[in-house]
Amino acid sequence: MKKLRTPERLMNELDLARISKLTAPFPPELLEAIDDSEVITPQEIPSDVITMNSLFTVVETESGHSNKLMLCYPNDAEPAKGYISILSPVGASLLGRKAGALAQWATPSGEQHFAVVKEILFQPEASGDYTT
User: Residues 96, 30: contact at Cβ < 8 Å?
Assistant: First the structure.
């Protein structure tokens, strides 16, 4: 008997369409996020899932340090201010994760990092914005 695979991530179709149009190379974490996600309409996305332009907090498992981040498109990225590009390993690893989920990514030197999504502070879809 074949087991049904429960997706670990949810992605809305508008985010996927916009991400697919980006021309820069996708990090392996983004390809994995796309492959591992169930794609649904923006109206179906639960409010505890990280989508594009979501503001959220993560807690690094190694240090316990908490960070407030916003997942954004490359042109809006400002890592020093917490605006994390979807094309970065960190941003790609967080896309589609629910509050409470563990994200993992590798730095350019190959070092592995882990963080738990603590809380979604703002999500466009939860506020009724299905087009941003």
Answer: no
* End-to-end Cα spacing for the chain: 42
Q: Which residue has the tokens 């908490």?
A: 66
Give the CA angle between residues 82, 88, 94 to the nearest 5°.
Answer: 70
pLDDT in tens, 41-92: 999 999 999 999 999 999 999 999 999 999 999 999 999 999 999 999 999 9
- For CA atoms 31, 33, 37, 40, the dihedral sign is negative
Could you give the CA distance from residue 53 to residue 83 in angstroms, rounded to a whole number? 9
* In contact, 105 and 29? CB cutoff 8 Å: yes
Contacts of 22 (CB under 8 A, 6+ apart): 73, 74, 86, 87
Structure tokens, 27: 């990090």
Rg of the chain over Cα atoms, rounded to whole angstroms, equals: 14
Cα 75-40-91 angle, rounded to 5 deg:
30
